[in-house]
Amino acid sequence: MAKLKIRSELRFILNGRDVALSDVAPDQTLLDWLRLSRSLKGSKEGCAEGDCGACTVLVGKLVAGKLVYESVNACIRFMGSLDATHVVTIEHLAGASDTLHPVQQAMVDFHGSQCGFCTPGFVMSLYALWMKSPEPSDAEIEKALQGNLCRCTGYEAIMRAARAISSYGKAAKDPLQAERKAVIARLTELQDGTRVEVGAGKDRFIVPADVDDFAKVLEAEPQATIVAGSTDVGLWVTKHMRDISPVVFIAGIEGLRTISEDKGVISIGAGVTYTEAFSLLAKRIPALGPLIDRIGGEQVRNMGTIGGNIANGSPIGDTPPPLIALDAKLTLRKGKKRRTISLEKFFIAYGKQDRQPGEFVEAVHVPIPEKGEKFAVYKITKRRDEDITATLGAFSLKLAKDGTVASIRIAYGGMAATPKRATAVEKALLGKPWTEATVEAAMAKYAEDFAPLTDMRATAEYRALAARNLLLRFHTETTGTRAPFQVSRYEAA
Amino acid sequence: MTKHTPNLKAQKIVGGVHTDQRHDSAHKHVAGTAVYIDDLPEPAGTLHVGLGLSTVTHAKLKTVDLTAVRTAPGVVDVLTYKDVPGENDVSPSGMHDDPVFAEGKVEFHGQPIFAVIAETREAARSAARLARIEYEELPAILNIWDLDPLKDRQVVTPLTLKRGDPDAAIAAAPRRIKNRMKLGGQDHFYLEGQVSLAVPGEDDEVIVHCSTQGPSETQHLVAHALGVPSHAVTVEVRRMGGGFGGKETQANQCAAIAAIAAKKHKRAVKVRLDRDEDMTATGKRHDFVIDYDVGFDDEGNILGVDFMFALNAGFSADLSGPVGDRALFHCDNAYFYPNVHAKSAPLYTNTVSNTAFRGFGGPQGMVGAERVIEEVAFAVGKDPLEIRKLNFYDAMGTTGERNVTPYHQKVEDNIIHRVVAELEASADYAGRRREIAAFNANSRFIKRGIALTPVKFGISFTKTESNQAGALVHIYNDGSVHMNHGGTEMGQGLHLKVAQVVAEEFQIDLERVKITATTTAKVPNTAPTAASSGADLNGMAAQNAARQIKERLIDFAAEKYSVPADQVVFLPNRVRIGNQEISFNDLVKQAYLNRIQLSAAGHYKTPKIHWDRAKGRGHAFYYYAYGAACSEVSIDTLTGEYVVERTDILHDTGRSLNRAIDIGQVEGGFVQGMGWLTTEELWWDGKGRLRTHAPSTYKIPLASDRPKIFNVALTDWSQAYEPTIHRSKAVGEPPLPLGISVLQALSDAVASVADHKISPRLDAPATPERVLMAVERLKKEVRGKA
């Protein structure tokens, strides 16, 4: 094995130019850098927490040699995570001439802007969509815009513009298309397999060269903050002014970005984003598709990882309950040592997980439901999309030939200090005939499993009632009733 | 921009009134080149501000130790009330109850106590957390739910409206319902938060670039806080990233802090609030408790009604008096009350001082009216739409008594019957009502509901002196026009509309009219851009200015060419003088060479209006704007989740100056109103801390929340009854209460679980939680009756 090289500058492409920075703080956000250091004022700060999308920019990266551009929130994206990427801001869109890009021209012609403050962010989100899907459906547009708030238009004009973009020009005419080859070549060069270390002492960030290097770094510096998508840690900085140094950025580590299926188990590396996980998960475990679509907005899904959602131990993370219901396993690694535990056991108490200093979550392994196994997950929020869970229930059921419950796993988020199984409810169902009467009897057991809290998202009473009713919803769905039970755009036909 | 070559043969100018024009800044919005305050180049040495906010709700300030703040890296200074050179007050109401910095006490969680001035914003924000403040906590009033609207402390004198003998009418009525509704507030969530950049000048001068809807008031209050005459202060704003009322008075505090720091340090100073601080420390739409007592007959005719509108003013008066007044002005919505009594109660609480928000209390009044309608409908077993129609004011032109408002103004321009009839037909209300009933009968958990609600919204400030505007128009000697007026641009397309008016007046293409930043140095003593009045007032003022110049040009041409004045006619981009035509530009050039003044200041004041608050009588509004919306929803009775399936809107903007802009206002207003009444919930914890202070917790509508089918139309037949600017009508606020149709449709869906026999009394915001709890209550009542 060749000796590891260390590079002390961060390198990426900003619009049309190479950037190399050797003096950049671990908690420097991309948005502030663009606006303050580069005077690129087109990207706006609306919330500084990745919810409003006014700061949306594109980040292009090589995925298995292919160049992929994704919308991200510059306000919570740290500079250190940009090594070997292509950052594209609104300023790059119109190109050299004064003519507007098709996305921009459509927004102008369909009156898609009023105050205009959110507009650059909308343009960038629509641009990312248009590159992927030039003739998008309304559902695709809505999904692409979940992370963009507009307070003026009521969105209808933006929808009209989004539907019309392709009539203003084809993707082939796009400036990013024209420079695509050059960018791929340049990014390939930038991926030099070195570790990046910028800064000194505590005030330092590290981008490990690969997974083994990451393990080594973390063993040496167990107090370091691990940052994957920064959709949570970003707020520690922008809202809580916390010192997060030293930081290890793992988003670019190829070895953590694999998702694969083997013998009925899907293994997801800790650096796999929601977006990257979507296609395989939604295909093999269909109930997870609509759930992932309701986690954050598109920008957050492009950055946030399932690994991070687990590792940060939040009681309202959306992926742990369904993964617990599916009896997922977690691989943790420290140095060269690995151990695999039941995901359920990872969550010990509020803010406390079974992770040792110097150890990190490497992958999660999700069993695909067997044929005939019924699996569902329901997320309850105040607003349907881009909202944090009030309560979320996940159900995994196997019936015996006689129609009795052979096995059942139920897990909830938002109902306790950790993601938690409903063991008393499960017990009340196990071995009983899967009938509404059984379900009703089991619904009375929720109080034994959960004593939820009242907060800004919901009262304890509502959480308890809605959580209980989800079991009834699950029963009704599994017994073949064709009515649309989930109020969402994914509702059954 | 390419060089403009005017078409001298055109039949019509490009961009006159009654044409659909794109927003003047649209191309800059989409390119990211439109400049907001935070995008202005900062003068070298610009300092930044971080605010120190109260961490308790109500307390005496025992000690404020700022040592650690002062010595933190990058900190230049820390300002407290002691550093305010003039008066420590930015109260817009003259009540002197809105300190720039808390002095001796704090009255809400999040109240600014001090400001850190530092080399960077980050340094200022970090240092602000290092203060050591000892509080002596005092009992706090956290909400208005349990207050007595007659006895508890009020921030200003309440208003009472009375007509007829409501007590007797209610007592004698065959049916009577008395109940209460809770109605939540709303954060503006303008995408651009509060921001000011103050640049010191010589002597006592300062220029404040401020995201404000009321530059004149910002100017006056900054001067007041600095202790200098208003002439020393210039306030300028090219555009805001949204306002919605939230920058009518709430911009003043940041402006004052920036100006004080700038003058003290002789350096430019910027204040830009973080979203959390913005939502915590600045005011919102008022939450209300509405008590109603209504007497009616078996047909559903309202005979008498008594309202108490208690509103949460917060810790100071701000605009709570007039907001409460406007709630009363709209407690009738489009309905005639033969006997009515209505009273406001702007109650003091230890929360942030609530303020203007699109509709300004009007929507709250209308929600009260619609709740009463709904109660009557359930009581008599009729479709609420029938009750609505039964109680409408008489149509325009009808003789009779049924057109007098609770404030004794005659409604002279009522077109609601036609608006509702047309919408009822185009939305197929009756057919869908039947379909929904059939669907509900066969659906166990998902229930649908529909509602069609009207809007009648009064246009004018009730503060008479605010109903005036100024404009400044120059024509340069090349024929290009510089236009300025007192209104501010917050996305509503005001500058564009006013420019269209000026283009129309001179008969020149819109492109020849330059839109310029609003500044107190060009047009003084202006009203805030509020009350939907922007185009009405400023359009008239600009027209007045243009006409002055035009008259001079006509006189000049008549004299020079020896023709009668009526033979000087402005045609598109040219002028016909007698039997020859010359270009507008040539005429201007000739006028200039002949020393004709090509600049004019215009002014306008709204005629007819008057208002006597003590008596509760007057001609409060110049005219009314009308509209109606029909919404259909589906709810899940297991969880309370819902979707808006379809909304149809028909809205009246008179002879619209620009239908494209107006449609945008109607769509946006509706969605904002819907958000207020559905998912937007302000939630304070038991310690008086707002916990929904960012978009992660405060949920405004997304693209996916808008109705799945959304049909919006303007009445193409209406025109303002009064001689407004080109007979158009105001459009900013009136569409917002169209969102009430969604609340009513949710209520209708909830009611279906009890076969429409029990009034759901669904309070707002109707979150999934409130919907589910209403469903549960109805189910329980049904079980109780069985």
Characterize the structure shown:
- The complex is a heterodimer of chains A (493) and B (786).
- By secondary structure, chain A is of the alpha+beta class.
- Chain A folds into 3 domains: 6-92 and 179-249, Ubiquitin-like (UB roll) (Roll), CATH 3.10.20.30; 102-173, [2Fe-2S]-binding domain (DNA polymerase, domain 1); 257-478, Enolase-like, domain 1.
- Chain A contains 19 helices and 21 strands.
- Chain A has a 5-stranded mixed beta sheet, covered by helices on one side.
- In chain A, α16 (423-429) packs antiparallel against α17 and α17 packs antiparallel against α19 (460-478).
- The longest helix of chain A has 19 residues, at 460-478.
- Chain A starts with 5 loop residues before the first strand and ends in a 15-residue tail after the last helix.
- Mean pLDDT of chain A is 94; it is low at 488-493.
- Chain B has 786 residues and is an alpha+beta fold.
- Chain B has a domain at 26-34 and 468-605: Aldehyde Oxidoreductase, domain 4 (2-Layer Sandwich).
- Chain B is built from 18 helices and 29 strands.
- In chain B, the strands form 7 sheets. In chain B, strands 3-5-1-12-9-10-11-20 form an 8-stranded mixed beta sheet. In chain B, strands 7-15-14-13-8 form a 5-stranded mixed beta sheet, with helices on both faces.
- In chain B, β27 and β28 form a beta hairpin.
- The longest helix of chain B has 28 residues, at 534-561.
- Chain B is globular and about 90 Å long.
- The N and C termini of chain B lie far apart (74 Å).
- The mean pLDDT of chain B is 97.
- Classes of the chains: A alpha+beta (493), B alpha+beta (786).
- The interface between A and B is large, with 90 and 89 residues.
